[in-house]
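CORE FACILITY INTAKE
Project code: CF-77B
Contact: R.S. (postdoc)
Sample description: multi-component assembly, two entities in total
Requested service: structural model of the whole complex
Turnaround: standard
Below are the sequence entries exactly as provided by the requester. Do not edit them.
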Amino acid sequence: MRRDLAVRSSYGSSNTSPVIEIRGLRKTYGEGEASVEAIRGIDLVVNEGEFLSVMAPSGSGKSTLMHIIGCLDTPTSGSYRLAGRDVSHLDEAELASIRNQYIGFVFQQFHLLRHLSALSNVELPLVYAGLTPNERRIRATEALRRVGLGDRMNHRPTQLSGGQQQRVAIARALVTDPTVILADEPTGNLDSASSEEVLGWFGEFHRAGRTVVLITHEPDVAKVASRVVRMRDGVIVGDGPPELIFVGTGTTFAAANPAVPVIKGLDAAGGKLEPK
Amino acid sequence: MMSLRETLRASIEAIATHRSRSLLTVLGILIGIAAVIVTVGLGEGSQAKVTAAVSSLGSNLLVVSPGSSTGTGGIRGGLGSASTLTIADATALASQVDAPDISAVAPVVQKNEAMSAGGNTWSAPVIGTTPPYLGIRSRQISFGNFITQADVTSGNEVAVLGTQVSAELFPGQNPVGQTVNINGSSFSVIGLLASAGSSATSNQDDQVIVPITTAQSLLIGGGSGTSVSQILLQAKSQNSISAAYQEANALLLQAHQITTPSAADFTITPETQLLSTATSVSKTLTFLLTGIAAVSLLVGGIGVMNIMLVSVTERIAEIGLRKALGATPRAILRQFLTEALLLGLAGGILGVILGIGASLIVPKLTSNPVALSVPAIIGAVAVAAGIGLTFGVYPASRASRLAPIDALRGD
């Protein structure tokens, strides 16, 4: 398998400006009595080149956070700067353009279009970026080769295994050369071998200098990142390298219930613990 | 921004992916367009048929009827109700000096009579007229001779039969030389008319022609011995119909000693007017049928909207994904509108093919001719595309307004 991802020049520098800068973020659904506050004030800074996983049980607001980080939704209050630009109050069309340029999505359900070949699926974001068919073909072919699917380019999703489908989705996330790769439970529909492989790819992207945000409820998945943010009931309850967040040897998870792991170094305010 | 070509490609892919559903979607439009093509074709075909039938009644024909009409509109005193036209009027109209634009004149009396020959009986209109009738009515003799001026002068008891009368009275025989009994008098058959078929108004093969004098003395009783029911006039040419009309009008007013034209006791009807009447009838029919076809197109359009709404619901995940990858609401709107337009267009083209096919088959099953009209075909395709587009607006705008997170959650 080839893992020859080129390091982008800008990522190779020592510049660690924040890619994601979230301040006082709140998100409320519904109105009045029936309103539900999914996110109750989050501050989060992700620097360029970081590999961050957001670990939280379902119903803790992690999907909402993922939607806001991915510019699929806007916050009720608070600010969100993506690559230095305030994206908290943009309209639908502007958000679409931001997603296209800055975010590479990897979903649990793969979300490949069944009637299109692997190559056409990978080309899709480039279509909306306005590239010519020729440019698209070259870049999509290259992206599929990077994830080792150079010989499967004309296969339809139904002709590919789950792991292969997720690799197509990863190639699609990579093809626009996004600022952030945002993966939402990317291993949720995969067997353990495929999961390991997919997580390996994210590690590879990280080593190549990319910013990766991985959202999961599984500690085993979360700990492949270099920084883990734990969320619970709409707030961040832990933030640090995996060895600080999880007790034990670092290969197995200590607590039986992943929702209540033993957390070291969590400050009283429930805030974050910046890795020093 | 997504280019038009990409939009088109994505739409074609989506339509091709759901081939059978796409076909069902366009079925309504397809049938509607085919119906439009056939009904317009039927209308134009029957119009052509009426035109041909009317001109078969005689070329450059003017019909003088007794009774008055109040010019443009209503009929006063009833057309044909009075017996004010006479053979003398016909003679006057035949004058080449006073009416140079009238080339032929044939007075006509007509009455339905019972007739028999051998053991066969039949009932048919008996027409008493003069020799020019044959030319004015554009008829042909297939056997024997037509009545002559001598027959008219002497009031000979001779008859010329239409093919249907001949077939009824003399089945399988040549009637010429035989005898037919009409209203108690014996007539010898001197000729057989060639078949002229049915016109819009009468069956031209179901008639018997006798000299006008004979008809007046033997068949038409009462005091109307010299009155005629119609005088047929033939103008010299298509261009002299108007002049012939003026001349006939002036001559008859003078002969009847009428000074105010509006008080005329006769009516002159040019053939063109008959034609326009018949044409307007067939136009009304076409209009009606086209209206029905238009309703079916409307229903077809609603079908497109309905199935496109289902399609939007079914493709929520796809829409969400496209949006997540950078499709603007506008790009989604364009994609679905293009799909609707293409569906309409496809329905239109398939409908035209079906319509042309039906237009070729219908005349074989019924006797109605179907004329294919190129403007109708082009118009139908354009209308189909327009319907697709119009009824695609609502589903497309719904698709474009879907929030990407709701759409992505769709599975």
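Facility notes:
- The longest helix of chain B spans residues 271-314.
- The two ends of chain B are 28 Å apart (CA to CA).
Invoice: internal transfer
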